[in-house]
Specification:
Layout lengths: L6 H11 L3 H14 L11 H13 L8 E3 L3 E5 L4 E3 L2 E3 L10 E7 L7 E7 L2 E3 L9 E3 L10 E3 L8 E8 L7 E10 L9 H50 L9
Parallel strand pairs: 2-11
Antiparallel strand pairs: 1-4, 3-9, 5-6, 5-10, 6-7, 8-9, 10-11
Length: 251
Amino acid sequence: MSPANNPKKKKANHHHHHQNPHQHQVLLSIHKKSFKMSPDAWLPQPTLFLTGLSLLLALAPTGLGMEVMAPTTINALNGSSVKLSCTFNSCYKVENKQFSLNWTYQECRNCSEELFLQFRTKIMNKQLDRFGNRVEFTGNPTKYDVSFTLKNVQLEDEGTYNCYVLNPPDRHRGHASISLKVLTKEPPKHDSTVAVIVGASVGGFLAVVILVLMVVKCVRRKKQQRLNTDDQKTEEEGKTDGEGNPDEGTK
């Protein structure tokens, strides 16, 4: 007998499509309860935080560029001295023979850059007419600091200051920009105790995160460079074997 003519099969199918109404209500009630969430479920949980941090570490950048850090904007009082801070992170020790630094000035966004401070085995002050002898290098490249101090700040000193750093074997040059604003009078002081405390706490946490990311990045970068070096050696050895002596049987 074919399945189509089997009365038991038809009866079973009929029973499947017509469930008990009471049973359907019970299932619907359970389904709704399963989607109820307590208010605490929306609060950040330590486990979620640690998971997010782990994901952040896993996605740490592996590029070949170095990080150069500088404040986006610096305000200076007319006639005062101001330090334009620029620091950098590198996986390699600074060697004066290879390390290079350029400080340039831009009067406007579309203006050309003017080189006024340079490091090539030693610091060289270009002494532009704009600055004269008011520029003093106050950094220390071996400590990853390439800052300088501008003395007797003038209104004409406003503009963008670009910091370019290259520390081989890092292959890409790092860059940071500072916008200098010159004030004619000192701004009013505000009580910022709470802001300082909060800023210090957040800054300390971010510093730890950045340090961990840099360690991960350096380890990955050096590992990749070792792999590239091993591959290059393998290719050279293969070429050497191919150019070796012919078999003795062919003599």
